[in-house]
Amino acid sequence: MEKFVTFIKTIISIDETEISMVLSKCRKKTLPKGKLILKKGQIANQYFFILSGGLRFFYEGESNENTTWVVFENEFLTEISSLNPQKPTRFNMIAIEETELIVIDKKDMDFLYAHIPVWHEFGRKIWEETCVRMIDQIVKFQTLTAEERYLEFINTPEILQKIPVKQLASVLGITPNALSRIRKNIR
Questions:
Q1: What is the DSSP letter of 113?
Q2: Which residue from 171, 158, 151 is spatially nearest to 50, judged by alpha carbons?
Q3: Structural contact between residues 36 and 93, judged by C-beta atoms closer than 8 angstroms
Q4: What is the reported pTM?
Q5: CA–CA distance, 144 with 51 (Å, rounded to integer)
Q6: Could you give the CA distance from residue 8 to residue 55 in angstroms, rounded to a whole number?
Q7: Comparing 75-79, 99-103, 169-173, which segment has the lowest mean pLDDT?
């Protein structure tokens, strides 16, 4: 839990009593590689902090899986398009390797929001940062070539090392063959 506490303290100023209350609402969970943590059609009701490992968000297209997001260590996340409106998710969320998580149930997060005023600031900052990343991703898809998008991913070596080419191509919005050509041209 120390890693999670350090993460929280990089985002907000919080006292030890409040940290204790937060931690009382958290539990650790370990997922083996390939374990689904959320399946299409379920309603998300948990928040996660990744202590180690990684998660992949994907949906099933007509002929293949489409990876939309891959997250690794020190990320705080949920499937917000399901959790907030309490609607069935369109995504599957799966461990891409053995993954250790801190889990906070929605009801417990709501309790923390109600009882720790500074926790609102934590939530606001997390979701603002997430929104900025999503906007950046949309703009990159609209303004960068596939090769330029790939070059951006080289700055995140975890993605290159931990997900197969087919899934990386999906994140980039291209076919695996197109990704192979790009990689060949860059070498």
A1: H
A2: 158
A3: yes
A4: 0.87
A5: 32
A6: 20
A7: 169-173
Q: Residue 98: how many CB atoms within 10 A of its CB?
A: 14
**Residue recorded with tokens 């499937």:** 79
Q: Among residues 51, 153, 54, 36, which one has the least CA distance to residue 96?
A: 54
Please give the DSSP secondary-structure letter assigned to residue 44.
P
What span, in angstroms and rounded, lies between the C-alpha atoms of 147 and 113? Answer: 42
Residue type, 63: S
Specify the DSSP element, H or E, that contains 72: strand 65-72
**Residue 37 three-state SS:** strand
Cα Dmax for the chain:
55
Neighbours of 42 (CB within 10 A): 16
pLDDT in tens, 5-51: 999 999 999 999 999 999 999 999 999 999 999 999 999 999 999 99
Rounded distance between C-alpha atoms, residue 53 and residue 32, angstroms = 10
Give the pair of three-digit tokens for residue 48.
């996660």
Q: At 133, list the tokens.
A: 């990343």
Packed helices 16-24 and 117-143: angle between N→C axes, nearest 10 degrees: 70
β-pair type (54-60, 46-52) = unpaired
Instruction: Provide the phi-psi class of 105: left if phi over 0, else alpha when psi is between -120 and 50, else beta.
Output: beta
